[in-house]
Write a structure and sequence with these properties.
Strand content: under 5%
Distance between the termini: 76 Å
Mean pLDDT: 72
Helix content: 55-70%
Structural class: mainly alpha
Low-confidence stretches: 23-28
Shape: elongated
Oligomer: single chain
Radius of gyration: 18 Å
Number of domains: 1
Number of strands: 0
Keywords: Signal
Amino acid sequence: MYSLALFSLLLLLNNEINASIESPATYPQSALSHCSIDNYSSWLEQKESLTFFLQFARFLALDTKRIEREISIYDLQDRCLKQFETPPPTIVKE
């Protein structure tokens, strides 16, 4: 009984997410244009939620292409942020 309700809910959520996710033609350019993140904790929570939903979608054999694309954008944003973790060395002229 509950599994049917859960399956229906996940199927509905899958359709909603797939309808609302924009899939840019080139992911690296998209990630670089969105490299700055206003609220890191919110961004991280969204990434973890997508990863969790991806696991459920795979378990229920739902279409996961768009979710994987969205997660790849988050991964590219993460790589972009890591570029700014270590500032380039400064050369001081004496």
